[in-house]
Description:
Largest sheet: none
Number of strands: 0
Number of domains: 1
Structural class: mainly alpha
Shape: globular
Amino acid sequence: MNFLVIVLASQLLYYLLIVQTGVVGAFDSHIHDIFPLPIGGIIGSLLSAYWRHDNLRQELFFMFAIQIIVSWYYPNYSLGLLLVLGFIVGYTTPLLLHIFKSQSHLGLALGMAISYAIGTALYDYPFAQRGTIAVALPMISIIALYFSYVQKTSAFETEVFPVSVVISMMLWIFADSALFETLSRSHTLDVWSHFTALVITAHLVGVYLAYRFKKSLRE
């Protein structure tokens, strides 16, 4: 298996279990307590998109290391740590997307399938008890990245990430977060506890169909 798939899967899992639901759940969705998180994400995404990168591999190693340090404090984050956490996730996401442009669509689909399946299975794990998961996932990312090949580039052109792509990515993240948060807070629609297998199956089918008809979707 391409180790970059593990890097992608572990980071998607971190986003789902820690950033998207763990932190939000631990702070009981109080926006005045977690507002630095999305602000940091926006700043990180924009800086990553328009920064000239000389060594993507070293940048990811550095970001994952900071991610581990920040994760040690989960879920007792200050406003400053939430800003840093959001920045890390926002900064690394465009880098991973850029790296996977040169990878096969099968690898991308496999990484998404792994993250969706495991993330759904662990979704009911108590928010306050995900500290071990928060530290383990970036450690897995670092180990997998060590065994991965990332093509070196002398310059990372800003045109690689047009404004429309960055905006679309951020809108998708916000919409996806709102959906997961709404469903997780609903007491009448507890789909993760009672329909775990169905949700996993639906995710896997969706990823397969996207992979199967990728050429048709481009047209």
